[in-house]
Amino acid sequence: MPTLSLYAFQRSDPSLAGPFFQSHVGYSDGGWAFSEISNLNFNPDTSSLAWERLDSELVIDLSGAANNQLVLNTVDGLLSSPASRTGPIRTSYVAWQNVPSKVHNSNPNLHQPTDLLATINIDFHISTPWYCSDASGTITYYVFFSLDGGGNLNGDVQAWYYNYSGGGPVCTGGIDSKLSDPNSGVPSGVAQLQSLLDAAIALNTGSKTFWMLYFLPGHGDKSGFSQDNADNNAALALLPN
Q: Among residues 8, 37, 41, which one has the least CA distance to residue 217?
């Protein structure tokens, strides 16, 4: 049974993610469906997306997969004391043209401007000596999903980035040095996350091949009405051959 999914975003374009309302209505093959989202408490800068989702659609809840205990253990191992993860891992998506300049400018032609990449976002806190303020921020890994010539799903952890506030007046240098260390900092997580991603793809897709993939905001729900935030939760959808 196909599903009509209607999304209403609090931002000017669905590729900007952000808070949204969603409504999902199933209907019979050859039939039709009606869906409505009204009386939204959003500012004027809004957008909407309607999507007909086929029965055969395979959905991978990226936030659900990222918060698997094995993944959490790996991430927590990357953040050695005095750094620690705060809260669950958040997943989202971002257009290549909107990634931070430090990431984009390292290889500006790696993707088309509107190509979407998944983001794995890890919020962290760093305790500092008494003469500095504690630091809080987010580590982000960028993942590009694609289908090869045989229709197999590939996921490539292509870049990393972090930002934080705090650490003043004299501790930011030490924080940056620790986070940027290629052997024990944020860069060292690329290979470990790639290994986990490869295993997750194999587990979720098996021997299936696909002809189309796309992102969905939230967890990939297919029924009901609810509110979510695509800055925190995103899903990958695939249509099998």
A: 8
Instruction: For the chain, give the number of residues.
Output: 241
* Run of H or E including 238: strand 234-240
Burial annotation 138-159 (CB, 10 A radius, 16+ → b, else e): ebbbbbbbeeeeebebebebbb
* Domain layout of the chain by residue ranges: 61-204
Computed over every residue of the chain, the mean pLDDT equals 93
Listed in sequence order, the residues at least 6 apart from 180 whose beta carbon sits closer than 8 Å to its beta carbon are 186, 187
Reading the block at residue 35, the tokens are 């869906």
- Residue 4, classed as helix, strand or coil, is strand
Supply the pTM of this predicted model: 0.95
One-letter amino acid of 173: G
pLDDT tens, position by position, 124-157: 999 999 999 999 999 999 999 999 999 999 999 9
Q: How far is the CA of 136 from the CAs of 122, 124, 142, 172, in angstroms? A: 11, 6, 20, 12
Report in angstroms the alpha-carbon separations of 87 from 17, 50, 67, 137, 147: 20, 31, 10, 12, 32
Give the per-residue pLDDT at 35.
80
Q: Which tens digits make up the pLDDT trace of 96-133?
A: 999 999 999 999 999 999 999 999 999 999 999 999 99
Is the sign of the CA dihedral 68, 74, 75, 77 positive or negative?
positive
